[in-house]
Amino acid sequence: MMARRSAGLLLVVQLFVIKKLGVHKSFSVTCRGPGFEKEGAVNFGLLMSFRNSSRNELSFSELYRRHVDLCVEAEDLGFDTIWLTEHHFVEDGYSPSMLPLAAAIAARTKRIRIGTFVLLLPLHNPLRVAEDAATIDVLSNGRFDLGLGQGYVPREFIGFNVPREERSRRLREGVEIIRRLFTENDVTFEGRSYIVRGATLYPKPVQQPHPPIWIGARSRSATERAGRNGYHLAGLGAEQAQIYRDALRAAGRNPDDFNVAELCFGYIAAKKEKAWDEAEFALHHLLSCYGQWIAEANDVPGDENFARVPPVGELRHAGSVGFDAVIGTPDDLVAKVEQLEQHATHLALGLALPGIEPKKIRASMKLVAEKVIPHFRRRTRKRAG
Q1: 57 found inside a domain
Q2: Per-residue model confidence as pLDDT tens digits over 62-119
Q3: Phi-psi domain of 77 (left: phi exceeds 0; alpha: psi -120 through 50; beta: other)
Q4: What does the alpha-carbon distance between residue 103 and residue 136 come to, in Å, rounded to a whole number?
Q5: Interhelix angle for 98-108 vs 60-77, to 10°?
Q6: Domain total in the chain
Q7: Is 350 domain-assigned?
């Protein structure tokens, strides 16, 4: 991917690292549901990964407390969704257990939605995931979104003793089990990876027929399966979104009833130079981690190039780093979101880059809330009027 330049910035680095996925052919009735009532408005989400770095080594107790506080403040600032994300065995503490975090955030908030972007289902027991997800939906009174993916980092599958070559099948079987547990009683399922006998979920989720289910996809075939089966898409770019919507139509579904989320890392300050000065080390750390993981996985030709990350000091001047991010001003982010809204309904904005002090993350969030979100809300009101 070539980096694009627009007024003010831009290395715009918009990363989505979810790897090739698959979904079973089971039917699902997943529509927009609660939280998607703002027709025409971008859903502004905040991605939280609860990571340290060598630049800012808080204790993990302090980091978790402060970042949960940021999630509560995001609700007060007008963000629509908190998205949580998962990886394992990462030295900086990248959140390995999202569902307890989701429960903690649910207990301290009232309006904001909470979702997983994405839970690595092959590393989990799907019956346990269904129970935990239903419990969080109850705790939050129907504010939970369940995003699922197959994962890609080799060391994670080694650590969990899960054969990596089984990940697509485990995802396909697991998502069917979860959907059926949400919507049926006395569920029996016999697959190659999982067996469930006579299971009934109590309590059921608040949202009916079930919480929104999202599938992270990268390949064309996985994207088409997500559309055919009626799941929302955590995707990568306009071309993929069109493939997804075509698949929805081919399956007799209305694309307007479904959502596309896109991830965009970034850091916002009053001036571009200030944003880079405060965030370049953190972006370098983030890109280096993802680059190493993607290169090791080597799922798609060219993935080895992701490991080539310019050093701090040169990164801000790089024309292309294989990824995409908005490090700059509110106007830079407005321009980026105006591009994304042509194909995406939801933005997962990763402002909490690893190692940036919480007070600086808070300042970046406030700029987005004061200068970016109102731009799109005002425009939506004008359209409605």
Answers
A1: yes
A2: 999 999 999 999 999 999 999 999 999 999 999 999 999 999 999 999 999 999 999 9
A3: alpha
A4: 6
A5: 50
A6: 1
A7: yes
